[in-house]
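Suppose a colleague, Dr. K., hands you the sequence of a protein chain of 121 amino acids and asks what its three-dimensional shape might be. Before reaching for any lab equipment, you can write down a predicted structure in token form. Begin with the sequence itself:
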Amino acid sequence: MDTLAIIKRIELRIAELGMSKADFYKQSGISSASYSQWNTGRYKPTEKKLASAAACLGVSMEYLRDGTETKKAPTGEGGRKDVLDEVDIAFYGDFKELSEADQDVIRNMVAVMRQRRAAER
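The predicted structure, expressed as tokens, is then:
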């Protein structure tokens, strides 16, 4: 695992989202100390922290690890049910027209919101 490459992808995504580092730390649950230790090469991110970062940033763990995205099975194949299938909102049709990567960003954002809601309970 190339930790410095992971840091670069995290920083790029933080910038793309217009997110502050403080918001990233808070939303991902990753401490600034842990992040700093990754950045200096002292430690590597755990799978759990990598998953938290990916969910927070709306990307896959594969993207953070090696810069690639993995394709997920389309709705109805492989048993995956789309996060938005049951939502009756105006942009639903537009969602289906988004690239798979953009759909994954929205799915990951929904997952982060669900995690936050569960943590508040």
